[in-house]
Amino acid sequence: MEQNEPLGTKEYEDLLDQNIVVLMYDGDFLYGILRSFDQFNNITLENCVQRIFHKKQYFQKSLGLYMIRGENIVLLGLSNLNLRDFEKVDQKTIETTLQ
C-alpha cells in the first residue's frame, strides 16, 4: 500500500478481532478490539479504553463498546503496548502533572 493511501476493506478485515490503537484527530489514544467497520471508515471498538500518557505515567479510562466516526481517525494499527514500564495514576494526578 502506498503511503497516505486510505485503508480499504482488505486492510480492515485483517484487523478485525485484533487489539488495535486509534489516534484520534483531537490527539486522544483509544485502545480496543476492532469489531466492525463500514464504507465510511466508521469503526466499533469493544473493551475500549482511553489512555493519556505523560513521561512514565499513564491514566486509563474505560469506555466499553465505543463507536468512532471515520472522519475523526488519524491513524490506526495493531497494539502491542507493554505498560510494565509505566506507572498507572488516577485522573487528578495526570491532570496536575500536565498543568
UniProtKB/TrEMBL annotation:
Pfam families, per database record: LSM
A GO CC term assigned to this protein in UniProt: Lsm1-7-Pat1 complex
The keyword Ribonucleoprotein is assigned to this record: yes
Keywords attached to this entry: Cytoplasm, mRNA processing, Ribonucleoprotein, RNA-binding
Record GO biological process: deadenylation-dependent decapping of nuclear-transcribed mRNA; mRNA processing
UniProt-listed InterPro entries: Lsm1, LSM_dom_sf, PTHR15588, Sm, Sm_dom_euk/arc
Keyword Glycoprotein: no
Positions of the Sm domain: 7-82
Cellular compartments annotated: Cytoplasm; Cytoplasm, P-body
SUPFAM superfamilies, per database record: Sm-like ribonucleoproteins
Main location: cytoplasm
CDD domains (UniProt xref): LSm1 (cd01728)
GO MF: mRNA binding
Subunit description: Component of the heptameric LSM1-LSM7 complex that forms a seven-membered ring structure with a donut shape.
Function: Component of the cytoplasmic LSM1-LSM7 complex which is involved in mRNA degradation.
Family: Belongs to the snRNP Sm proteins family.
Protein name stated in the entry: U6 snRNA-associated Sm-like protein LSm1
Organism: Pseudoloma neurophilia
Gene this chain is encoded by: LSM1
